[in-house]
Amino acid sequence: MADSLAQSAPSPTEGVADPGRRDFINILAVSAAVGGVAAVAWPLVDQLNPAADTLALASLEFDLTKVALGQEVTIAWRKQPVFIRHRTPEEIAKARAADHASDLKDPELDSARVKPGHDEWLIVLASCTHLGCVPAFAQGEYGGWLCPCHGSQYDTSARIRKGPAPKNLIVPDYAFLSDTKVKIG
User: Which residues are the active-site residues?
Assistant: First the structure.
């Protein structure tokens, strides 16, 4: 009878999984979870990098000899239009005379919008600060730019004078490499 009791009593390890197997399953599950998170996170992190085509145009050099006195050109920089205006002495005088005008919505001196010694060159983003339209030159009341969409008017220093635009046309970061070459960006 003692033998039959000994055979029917459960052993202390019966019903308990092998500890080595349990560790392997836990390691496998954690590894699969980490791999899944990495597979989801990589495309999200990778899309935060700047596009290759914008890196190529981070800065742009332009030859100013292409722009005659009193003319302007529009170039593309970072997929945005930029006005490069070769201002006449009359345009500069008109802009300086309006430095303290009462109708300047975004007051800024003309000298702060150009580089010292290069007053005849005005370089601004060609995008209206109201809704991003491209203004046209030699239109409006102030001899500067007029946004045809909503009527914003800018003077010869590209400062907002009239209309719904809240700010002056933006002056990008630029530097003169020589008297005939400028680097934007």
Answer: 150
Beta bridge partners of 82: 75, 125
For the chain, the domain total comes to: 2
Neighbours of 64 (CB within 10 A): 19
Q: pLDDT per residue over 2-58, tens digit each?
A: 555 555 555 555 555 577 778 888 888 899 999 888 888 888 888 887 666 555 557
Same domain, 82 and 170: yes
Reported in sequence order, the residue ranges of the chain that DSSP labels E, i.e. its strands, are 60-63, 72-77, 80-86, 121-125, 136-137, 143-146, 153-155, 160-162, 174-178, 181-184
Q: Do 7 and 75 belong to one domain?
A: no
Residue 118 token pair? 């290069």
CA–CA dist 96, 120 (Å, integer): 12
Domain extent, residue 34, equals: 2-46
Tokens of 9: 């009593």
